[in-house]
C-alpha cells in the first residue's frame, strides 16, 4: 500500500473514541443458570483469618509451566465478553501491587524460586489461586508447583473456561471477605 | 517414511529436528549449527533484565538486554525457565495424544495434526478427503485465532484500547465457534489416528462476520499514523533462517502448505501471501491480517469438499518411522517419530518458535526499549513449545 | 628579614630525599608547617601570602599521604621534593628571574614524574613541550615588562601587554580550555603517581593562579581583557563540568574538575582586571583566595583518594566500604560541588555574588556578567551531579570484595579541613565584609556580607548558622520521629537474583542525551555503544601530533627522556637560581 511510498502517511480522521462507542454493550451477563460452578475452596485455608478484600482485587499471574491455553483464557477475562473490571478485578504488572497470585502450569524446577520470590514480594494480605488442572494436580503433564503459601481457591479445567475463572476469582474474594 | 528420505540438502532449510536438519525435501544427517549470538564486550553498555516473571509477557522467559540506556545493543534470552518434561516415550499413540495436545495450547490442532501426520506416515495409513479437509479447516481456524491474538497483543503494546478489545472480541468468537463445532475451545480430543471427531459443515458461514469485522479493524489500524509508526522499521529481520509469517514478511514464500503434500492445500488453489517489504514488524502485521482473509477463503473452499465420512482405515502398520509437517500459525511444525510395536520409541519435533527465537533476538539490535513489545508480539513466539522435552 | 631563608628547610628536604624517602617527606611536612606559620604570623594574611598557606596545607597533606604511598618508585621522592622546591621559589620570589627559575624547576620535575612510567614517553614529552611553551610566554612577558620598567623586580607595569602575554602562559599551567594538557594528559594516560597528580592538579595549577594574580595586581586594569578572561573562564567552567559529568575514569573526572575550578577562578580574575570599584576589588580578591583554597585542599583530598582505590575505572571499583573514607570524601566533594557550609560553598557563593553585583551596575558589563553568572551556576549544578556520581560509585554503591581503601587519614583530614575552613571563613575574610544581624539572632562577626558600596549590603550568608541549623533540624527530626523505621524487603527483579547492574555510564546518560549536540554523543542505535566523543581529547591528540612532528627533529637530542641528562639540566637550573638569588640581593 501507499503508506510506505513517498515517505509519508496519508491522513485520514480516525477517531478511535467514536469507533469504540459504536461497539457498545458487548459484555454478557454472567450465565448463572447454565453455569455449574466447579471451583473448590480450600477448606483448610478458609478457616484462617483473612483481611477482607471487599472492593477491588488485583491479580498477578505467574506461568510456572503452562501450555499457553490457561494463559490465554486467563487473559480472556479482560476482554469485552467477560470484562473483569466491572467486577473490580484488575491485572497488575508486579507482585508488589498484587492481592492475589494466580499460578498457572505445572511444577518446573527453575520457576520455584520465581514463585517464591513473587509471593514474598506481595504485600499482606495475600491470596493464591491455582488455575487449571496443571496447577491443581499436575494434570497429565507433571506435578503441581510448590510454594510456601496455600492456594485458597482451585479452578479446575484444562483450560478452565473464562467464566469459570471469573467465578473462581470472585469466590476467592468472597472467602477472604468473610 | 513415504515422503522424506535421509539425503543431502535439498529445498529450503527449515531447521533442526532431533539429530537432523530438516530441509523442505530431505532430512540431512547433520546438526544444524545455531550461530551463537555474540554480544561484544563494551564498557559503556550494561545489562537490563526483562523476565522471567513480568506483567508484560504472557509466558515466563528471560531476556537479557545489553543497552546503553535506551537503545538495544544486543539481546540474549533464556527461555528454559518453565521447562516441562513430557512423558511420551514408550507410550502408545492413543495415550500420548492428550500430552501432545498440551504442548502448546494455542497451536493444539497444529501439534496434534503434525504428530498424527508422523504417526500415520509411520503406520502407512491412507486418509480420505473428509479427514484431510477437516484437518485443513482446523488448522486455518487456529491460524485465524492466533493471528487475531498476535495483532491484539500488538495493539495492547500500543495501548490501543478499541482495536485491542475489538480483536479479542473476535478471538473469543472464534473460540466459541471452535467449541460449538468441536466441543472444546482448544481442539482437545478432536484428532485421532485416521479419524476426526468434528462436524465442520457450516463453519464458513459463521466466519463471514468475523472476517468482515477483522477487515474493518485492519483498515483502521493501517490508517492510524501512530500505530504504523511504531511498527515501521521495527525489528527488521536480516537472517534467512526464519520461517512462517516472519519469512513471508521478508518476501520468501516459505510455507509448509505448499511444500508438504500431506494436506492437499494446493488443490484448494492455495499460494502463500508474501510481502516484499523490509521484513519489519509492519510487514508481519500485514501478512497476518491478509492470512486471516486467506484462511477464511480456504475454509470456504475446503468446506465445499467436505463429504460425509465413509470409511475407516483398514490397513495399519505397527512399526516404522514417520514425519509429519504442517504449517502452524507461526510457521513449519514438524514431528519425526519412530514407532515400535505401536509404541513411541523416538520422537523429536521442530517448532517455529524455536527456529524464530534467534531471529527475533537478532532483529532487536538497534531498536529502542519501547519497540521491544511490538517486535516480540509480531513474531508470535510461544515459549511453551520451546521449553519442552520428551522423556 | 629575607623570606628566601624559608627555602632552606625545603632544600634540606630535597637533599635528604636522595638518602631516605621517609625523612624527606617528614621534613617536607615540617618545612611546610614553618612556611604556614610564617605566613600567618609574620606577614599577616594578605592576598599573596595567603597562597603560602594554601601551598603548605597541600604539601602537608600530600606528603603525609606519600609516606605510606611511595613504595615502588625510586625517583619519586627526590622529584616530588624538587617540584615542591620549585613551587616554593615561585611563591617566595622577589623578582621575575627567581620566579622563572622556580617555574622551570617545577615544570621539569613534573615532566620527570610523569616520565617515571618509562614505557610511555609520549605523554611526558607533550607535557614538557607545553610547559616549555608556557615558560617561553612568561619570558616574553617578563622581558617586555623589563623593557617598560627597567627592572626585574616586581614593580607596577604601565602597560597591559605583558599581562596578556603572561596570562596565556599561566593558562597553560592552569589547564584552561584549550590548554588542559598540563593537568590532563598525564592523568588521562594514568602515568602519574597519585601524589604527583595531587601536586599537578592542586599546586601547579595554583601557581598559575598565583602568577596571574601577582601580575594582575601590578598591571593596569582593562575592561576588554577582563571580559575576555571572564568569557574564557565561564566557557571552561561549563564545558569542563559537562565532560566531568560524563567521565568514566576517576582521575579524568578529577582532572576536568580542576579545569572547571580554575575556570571559576579565571572568571574572578577577569572581574578583578575590569577594576570596578574599590570595595568590590577587595571582595573579588577574597573570592579568588577562597576559590583557590577550597579547590586546592579538596582536589588534593580526592586525588589521594583515587590513588587508594583499586581501580581507576568507575565501573570496576570494588573496594569494601569504609565509613572514615566515606566521611572524608563526602565532605571534600561537598566542597567541590559548592555546597555550604564547606569552604567551597562559601567560595562559589562569593563568586556568584560578585557576578550578580556586577550585573546590577549600569554599564554594558552587566550583560556579560549576568550571562557568565548563569553559565557558572549551570556548571556548578552539573558539577554537583558529577560529584554525586563520583561519591556514589567510589564510596556508596557496591560493597565490594576487595580490601578497604588504605591510607585514608590524610583524606579525612582534608575533609575536616574544608568543613572547618568553611565555618572559620569569617575569620579569614577581610573584616570589612564580616558583620552580624542581631534582629534574627546572628551575633556580630558570624555573617559574611557582600557589598555593592561600602554602605549597602547585597547579600549575606552565615556558614556557622547553616551548620547549626542543619544539625538542629536533624536532631529534632531524630528526637521527634526517632530513628526512621525501615522496612527492608528483597528487591523484586522479575523473580530472579539481581543480575542487572547500574553503571556510572548509565548514570551520566541523561546528560549525554540532553547535551548530545555539544558532547557529540553517538546516537547511532545500531553501533556498539553510544559513548560521547571526547572533542577535547581529539583536539589535544591533534595538537600533540603537530607539535611532536615539529619538535622531534629540533629537540630530540635534548629531550630524549633520559633521566640523567635531565638531572644535569636540573642541577644547572638550580645553580642558575642560586646565582640570581645572590646577584639580585
Ligand atoms: S491445565 Fe491444561 S490448559 Fe492449562 S496449562 Fe495445563 S495443560 Fe494447559
Describe this structure in words.
By secondary structure, chain A is of the alpha/beta class. Chain A has helices at about 15-20, 45, 70-75, 110-120, 130-135, 160-175; strands at about 40, 55-65, 90, 100-105, 125-130, 155. Chain A has one domain: Rossmann fold (3-Layer(aba) Sandwich). Chain A is globular, with a radius of gyration of 19 Å. Chain B has one domain: Cytochrome-c3 Hydrogenase, chain B (Orthogonal Bundle). Chain B is globular, with a radius of gyration of 21 Å. The mean pLDDT of chain B is about 90. Chain C is mostly helical. Chain C has 22 helices and 3 strands. In chain C, helix 1 (about 5-20) runs antiparallel to helix 4 (about 75-90) and helix 10 packs parallel to helix 15 (about 365-395). Chain C is globular, with a radius of gyration of 24 Å. The relative contact order of chain C is 0.09. Chains in contact: A-B, A-C, B-C. Chains A and B meet through helix 1, strand 2, helix 3 and helix 4 of A and strand 7, helix 4, helix 5 and helix 6 of B. The complex binds iron/sulfur cluster. The site of iron/sulfur cluster (SF4) has 13 residues of chain A, from helix 3 and helix 5.
Short description:
The complex is a heterotrimer of chains A (178), B (391) and C (585). By secondary structure, chain B is of the alpha+beta class.
Structural class of chain C comes to mainly alpha
Number of helices of chain C: 22
Largest sheet of chain C: 3 strands, antiparallel
Query: Helix tally of chain A?
Result: 6
Greatest chain-chain contact: A-B, 53 and 50 residues
Q: What is the typical, i.e. mean, pLDDT of chain A?
A: 82
Strand order of the largest sheet of chain C: 1-2-3
- Residues in helices of chain A, as a percent range: 25-40%
CATH topology of chain A: Rossmann fold
| Helix content percent band of chain C | 55-70%
Q: Give the number of domains of chain A.
A: 1
Specify the structural class of chain A: alpha/beta
Amino acid at each position: 500500500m501507499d503508506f510506505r511510498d513517498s515517505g509519508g502517511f496519508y491522513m485520514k480522521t480516525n477517531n478511535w473514541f467514536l469507533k469504540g462507542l459504536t461497539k457498545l454493550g458487548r459484555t454478557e451477563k454472567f450465565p448463572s443458570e447454565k453455569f455449574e460452578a466447579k471451583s473448590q475452596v480450600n477448606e483448610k485455608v478458609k478457616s484462617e483469618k483473612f483481611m477482607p478484600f471487599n472492593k477491588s482485587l488485583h491479580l498477578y499471574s505467574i506461568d510456572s509451566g503452562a501450555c499457553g491455553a490457561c494463559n490465554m483464557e486467563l487473559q480472556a477475562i479482560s476482554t469485552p465478553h467477560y470484562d473483569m473490571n466491572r467486577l473490580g478485578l484488575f491485572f497488575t504488572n508486579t507482585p508488589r501491587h498484587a492481592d492475589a497470585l494466580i499460578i498457572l502450569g505445572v511444577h518446573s524446577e527453575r520457576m520455584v524460586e520465581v514463585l517464591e520470590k513473587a509471593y514474598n514480594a506481595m504485600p499482606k494480605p495475600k491470596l493464591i489461586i491455582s488455575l487449571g488442572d496443571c496447577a491443581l494436580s499436575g494434570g497429565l503433564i507433571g506435578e503441581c508447583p510448590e510454594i510456601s503459601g496455600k492456594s485458597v481457591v482451585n479452578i479446575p479445567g484444562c483450560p478452565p473456561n473464562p467464566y469459570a475463572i471469573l467465578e473462581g476469582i470472585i469466590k476467592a474474594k468472597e472467602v477472604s471477605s468473610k | 517414511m513415504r515422503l522424506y528420505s535421509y539425503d543431502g540438502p535439498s529445498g529450503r532449510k527449515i531447521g533442526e529436528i532431533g539429530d537432523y536438519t530438516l530441509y523442505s525435501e530431505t532430512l540431512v544427517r547433520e546438526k544444524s549449527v545455531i550461530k551463537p549470538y555474540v554480544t561484544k564486550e563494551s564498557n559503556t553498555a550494561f545489562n537490563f533484565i526483562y523476565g522471567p516473571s513480568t506483567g508484560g509477557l504472557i509466558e515466563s522467559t528471560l531476556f537479557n538486554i545489553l543497552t546503553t540506556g535506551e537503545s538495544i545493543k544486543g539481546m540474549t534470552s533464556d527461555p528454559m525457565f518453565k521447562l516441562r518434561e513430557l512423558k511420551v516415550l514408550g507410550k502408545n499413540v492413543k495415550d500420548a495424544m492428550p500430552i501432545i495436545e498440551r504442548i502448546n495450547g494455542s497451536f493444539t490442532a497444529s501439534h496434534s495434526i503434525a504428530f498424527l501426520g508422523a504417526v500415520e506416515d509411520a503406520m502407512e495409513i491412507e486418509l480420505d478427503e473428509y479427514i484431510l479437509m477437516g484437518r485443513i479447516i482446523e488448522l486455518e481456524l487456529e491460524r485465524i485465532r492466533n493471528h487475531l491474538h498476535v495483532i491484539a497483543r500488538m495493539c495492547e503494546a500500543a495501548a490501543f484500547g478499541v482495536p485491542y478489545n475489538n480483536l479479542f472480541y473476535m478471538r473469543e468468537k472464534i473460540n466459541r465457534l471452535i467449541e460449538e463445532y468441536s466441543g472444546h475451545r482448544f481442539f482437545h480430543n478432536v484428532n485421532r489416528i485416521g479419524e476426526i471427531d468434528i462436524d465442520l459443515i457450516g463453519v464458513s458461514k459463521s466466519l463471514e462476520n468475523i472476517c468482515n469485522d477483522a477487515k474493518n479493524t485492519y483498515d483502521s489500524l493501517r490508517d492510524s499514523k501512530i500505530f504504523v509508526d511504531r511498527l515501521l522499521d521495527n525489528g527488521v529481520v536480516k537472517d534467512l533462517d526464519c520461517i512462517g509469517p516472519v519469512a513471508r514478511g521478508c518476501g520468501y514464500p516459505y510455507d509448509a502448505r505448499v511444500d508438504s503434500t500431506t494436506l492437499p492445500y494446493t488443490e484448494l488453489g492455495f499460494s502463500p501471501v508474501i510481502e516484499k517489504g523490509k521484513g519489519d514488524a509492519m510487514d508481519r502485521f500485514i501478512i497476518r491480517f491478509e492470512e486471516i482473509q486467506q484462511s477464511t477463503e480456504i475454509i470456504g473452499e475446503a468446506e465445499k469438499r467436505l463429504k460425509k465420512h465413509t470409511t475407516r482405515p483398514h490397513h495399519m502398520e505397527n512399526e516404522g518411522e514417520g514425519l509429519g509437517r504442517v504449517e502452524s500459525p507461526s510457521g513449519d511444525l514438524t514431528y519425526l517419530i519412530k514407532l515400535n510395536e505401536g509404541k513411541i520409541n523416538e520422537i523429536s519435533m521442530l517448532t517455529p518458535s524455536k527456529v524464530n527465537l534467534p531471529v527475533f533476538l537478532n532483529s532487536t539490535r538497534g531498536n529502542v526499549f519501547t519497540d521491544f513489545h511490538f517486535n516480540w508480539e509480531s513474531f508470535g513466539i510461544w515459549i511453551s513449545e520451546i521449553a519442552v522435552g520428551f522423556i | 628579614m629575607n623570606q628566601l631563608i624559608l627555602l632552606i628547610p625545603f632544600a634540606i628536604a630535597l637533599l635528604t630525599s636522595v638518602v631516605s624517602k621517609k625523612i624527606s617527606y617528614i621534613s617536607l611536612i615540617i618545612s611546610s608547617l614553618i612556611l604556614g606559620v610564617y605566613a600567618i604570623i609574620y606577614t599577616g594574611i594578605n592576598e599573596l601570602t595567603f597562597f603560602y598557606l594554601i601551598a603548605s596545607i597541600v604539601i602537608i597533606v600530600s606528603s603525609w599521604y606519600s609516606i605510606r604511598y611511595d613504595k615502588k618508585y625510586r625517583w619519586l621522592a627526590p622529584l616530588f621534593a624538587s617540584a615542591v622546591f620549585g613551587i616554593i621559589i615561585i611563591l617566595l620570589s622577589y623578582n621575575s628571574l627567581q620566579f622563572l627559575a622556580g617555574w622551570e624547576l617545577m615544570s621539569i620535575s613534573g615532566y620527570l614524574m610523569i616520565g617515571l612510567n618509562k614505557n610511555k614517553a609520549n605523554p611526558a614529552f607533550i607535557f614538557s613541550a607545553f610547559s616549555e611553551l608556557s615558560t617561553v610566554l612568561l619570558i616574553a612577558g617578563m622581558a617586555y615588562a623589563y623593557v617598560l620598567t627597567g627592572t626585574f623586580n616586581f614593580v607596577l607595569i604601565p602597560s597591559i601587554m605583558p599581562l596578556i602575554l603572561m596570562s596565556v602562559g599561566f593558562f597553560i599551567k592552569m589547564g584552561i580550555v584549550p590548554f588542559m594538557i598540563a593537568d590532563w594528559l598525564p592523568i588521562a594516560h594514568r602515568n602519574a603517581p597519585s601524589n604527583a597528580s595531587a601536586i599537578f592538579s592542586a599546586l601547579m595549577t595554583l601557581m598559575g593562579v598565583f602568577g596571574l594574580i601577582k601580575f594582575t595586581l601590578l598591571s593596569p586594569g582593562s575592561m576588554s581583557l577582563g571580559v575576555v578572561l571572564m568569557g574564557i573562564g565561564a566557557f571552561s567552567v561549563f564545558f569542563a563540568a559537562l565532560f566531568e559529568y560524563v567521565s568514566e575514569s576517576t582521575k579524568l573526572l578529577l582532572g576536568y574538575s580542576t579545569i572547571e575550578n580554575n575556570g571559576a577562578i579565571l572568571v574572578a580574575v577577569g572581574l578583578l582586571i575590569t577594576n570596578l570599584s574599590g570595595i568590590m576589588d577587595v571582595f573579588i580578591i577574597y573570592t579568588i583566595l577562597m576559590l583557590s583554597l577550597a579547590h586546592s585542599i579538596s582536589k588534593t583530598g580526592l586525588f589521594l583518594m583515587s590513588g587508594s582505590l583499586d581501580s581507576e575505572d568507575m565501573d570496576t571499583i570494588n573496594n569494601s566500604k569504609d565509613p572514615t573514607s566515606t566521611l572524608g570524601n563526602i565532605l571534600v566533594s561537598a566542597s567541590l560541588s559548592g555546597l555550604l557550609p564547606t569552604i567551597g560553598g562559601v567560595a562559589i557563593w562569593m563568586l556568584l555574588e560578585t557576578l550578580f553585583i556586577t550585573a546590577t551596575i549600569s554599564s554594558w558589563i552587566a550583560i556579560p556578567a549576568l550571562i557568565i553568572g548563569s553559565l557558572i551556576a549551570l556548571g556548578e549544578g552539573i558539577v554537583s551531579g558529577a560529584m554525586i556520581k563520583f561519591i556514589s560509585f567510589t564510596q556508596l554503591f557496591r560493597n565490594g570484595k576487595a580490601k578497604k581503601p588504605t591510607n585514608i587519614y590524610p583524606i579525612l583530614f582534608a575533609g575536616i579541613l574544608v568543613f572547618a575552613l568553611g565555618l572559620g571563613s569569617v575569620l579569614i575574610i577581610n573584616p570589612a565584609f564580616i558583620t552580624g544581624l542581631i534582629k534574627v539572632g546572628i551575633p556580630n562577626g558570624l555573617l559574611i556580607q557582600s557589598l555593592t558600596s561600602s554602605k549597602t549590603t547585597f547579600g549575606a550568608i552565615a556558614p556557622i548558622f547553616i551548620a547549626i541549623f542543619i544539625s538542629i533540624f536533624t536532631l529534632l527530626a531524630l528526637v521527634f520521629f526517632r530513628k526512621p523505621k525501615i522496612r527492608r524487603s528483597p528487591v523484586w527483579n522479575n523473580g530472579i537474583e539481581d543480575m542487572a547492574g547500574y553503571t556510572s555510564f548509565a548514570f551520566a546518560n541523561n546528560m549525554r542525551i540532553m547535551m548530545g549536540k555539544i558532547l557529540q554523543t553517538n546516537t547511532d542505535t545500531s553501533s556498539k555503544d553510544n559513548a560521547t566523543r571526547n572533542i577535547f581529547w581529539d583536539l589535544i591528540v591533534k595538537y600533540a601530533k603537530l607539535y611532536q612532528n615539529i619538535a622531534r627533529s629540533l629537540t630530540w637530542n635534548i629531550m630524549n627522556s633520559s633521566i640523567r641528562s635531565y638531572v644535569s639540566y636540573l642541577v644547572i637550573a638550580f645553580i642558575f637560581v642560586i646565582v640570581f638569588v645572590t646577584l639580585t640581593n
